Amino acid sequence: MKYIWGLMGILVGTIIVQQFGWYQSVKKQVNVMQIIGIIIMVADVIMMQLQ
Question: Which residues span the membrane (predicted)?
Fold first, then answer.
């Protein structure tokens, strides 16, 4: 289960890096689908832990 939280942290970190253009990355604005995807992943992990 720890690995799933780690993967989600990497994905959120990537979105933040792209949002601000850190580390010479291409600056991209966060879109609604990315936010919805993160929310769905968090909900799935929470539901798995409740079982």
Answer: 6-23, 30-50
- For the chain, give the longest Cα–Cα distance: 42
Map out the domains of the chain as residue ranges: 2-50
Closest CA to 26 of 14, 35, 34: 14
Per-residue pLDDT of the chain (51 residues; tens, 9 = 90+): 677 778 888 888 888 888 888 888 888 888 899 889 889 988 888 888 887
| C-alpha separations of 50 from 3, 4, 37, 38, 45 in Å | 17, 15, 20, 19, 9
